[in-house]
Amino acid sequence: MAGVDSGATTERNRDRDETMLEPDFDPVPTAVQIGRCAYPAPCRAPRCAATHATIVLRKIDAAGRPVRQIELCDRHAEAVIARERRRGFEIFDRRDWR
Prior knowledge:
The chain is elongated. It is an alpha+beta fold and about 100 residues long. The chain has a domain at about 30-95. The longest helix is centred in the first third of the chain and has 18 residues, at about 1-20. It has helices at about 1-20, 75-85; strands at about 30-35, 55-60, 65-70, 90-95. It has a four-stranded mixed sheet with strand order 3-2-1-4, covered by helices on one side.
């Protein structure tokens, strides 16, 4: 009888281990959120002549959590938005929000 109980316990533990939630420390972004930059920051594009960023782009995962963020001038932001749209990302334009 001890062998039967031991097997059932091992199987139960294995099932529990397989169903435990594992945190995803590198979530895949699924959308891009566009917003106005309300704080002083330089454009993060290499060798940009603009003195400050006007747009904040955030890549967000399926749960709506921000994964990455970058501050850009209008010209570089439009280029990145067009690229991400071609890649199939959903675009959320929040530039009019305050």
